Amino acid sequence: MNYGVLGGPEGDEFCVLRSESDRAAMSWGVSGGRRRGRGCTERGPLLTLRDIAGDPLCLTRRLTIGDGSEVVLRPLVHADAVRLAAFLDALSCGSRRFSTFEGYDLAAAREMCDAIARYDKLRLVLDDVASGRIVGLLEFGLDPAASDVARYREAGIRLTAATDIRFGPTLADDYQGRGVGTSVFPPVTEVARRLGRSRIILWGGVRADNSRAIRYYEKHGFRPVGSFAEADGSRSFDMILDLCPSPGDR
Predict the structure, then answer these.
(1) Are 139 and 203 a contacting pair, CB within 8 Å?
(2) How far is Cα 227 from Cα 233, in angstroms, rounded to an integer?
(3) Where are the beta strands (DSSP E) in 41-198?
(4) Residue 53: its H or E element
(5) Considering 1, 7, 229, 248, which has the largest number of Cβ atoms within 10 A of its Cβ?
(6) Is the separation of the CB atoms in 38 and 198 below 8 Å?
């Protein structure tokens, strides 16, 4: 799976909820004080996939993107199958090249929904507040694939399920280039930390000809660790983000 860009114009800010009631209804589900530990966690107890499935509000945020539109970032739920299928079906050929799935229909959407809290995947969706449609899918893999482990080992990096999480975003075509990526990036890193991980790697890397995606990831601290050949002969880059860099790396 190879993912495209979420990035947008420079300077787009992550927008917090606008009222106390919003913050109460859509929080990170933090209880207790802040602490540092596994995954450099600063926002309370770690979460499991079962925790998230049982209380989706613990990872729900209302965001304002660069053009003023509002979206809600939240965990995928079982009732999302039809709307998720509409999102997948509407992806252009160009978007499908950068974000590949096993299918783009209702069967594929139902399979993703049926997998909630059953395997090693966490999926978040972006809802457009105005229309109610799903306009983004953010996937996290908690167990690095054997192919990832082998490639990173060649670069001198040891991946483990305890420290590393795979991440891949997909946006609806009409939401690309609107600053969504900058708005969702703080929640993305927070999800990784709340799941106890200290590094994020790109799910399937990023294609070498996807310059916008590469600039986006570099802007947010990812660094390249090597390249590899895709099935069609094109090149992709592996990139990694350390959420707990040593003082000398900051």
Answers:
(1) yes
(2) 12
(3) 61-64, 70-75, 121-128, 134-141, 164-171
(4) helix 49-54
(5) 7
(6) yes
Reported pTM: 0.81
Place of tokens 């306009």: 135
Tokens found for residue 227: 């390249």
pLDDT at 107 (0 to 100): 97
Identify the residue whose tokens are 């939240």: 74
Tokens at 250, concatenated:
């900051």
Give the pLDDT confidence score for residue 3 in this predicted structure: 47
**Residues 87, 137: contact at Cβ < 8 Å?**
yes
Residue 143: its pLDDT value, please?
93
Q: Is residue 176 a contact partner of residue 212, using CB atoms and an 8 Å limit?
A: no
Find out whether 182 and 217 touch, Cβ atoms under 8 Å.
no
Give strand pairing partners of 141: 121, 166
Task: Give the span between the Cα atoms of 62 and 161, in whole angstroms.
Answer: 29
Strand partners, 72: 62, 127
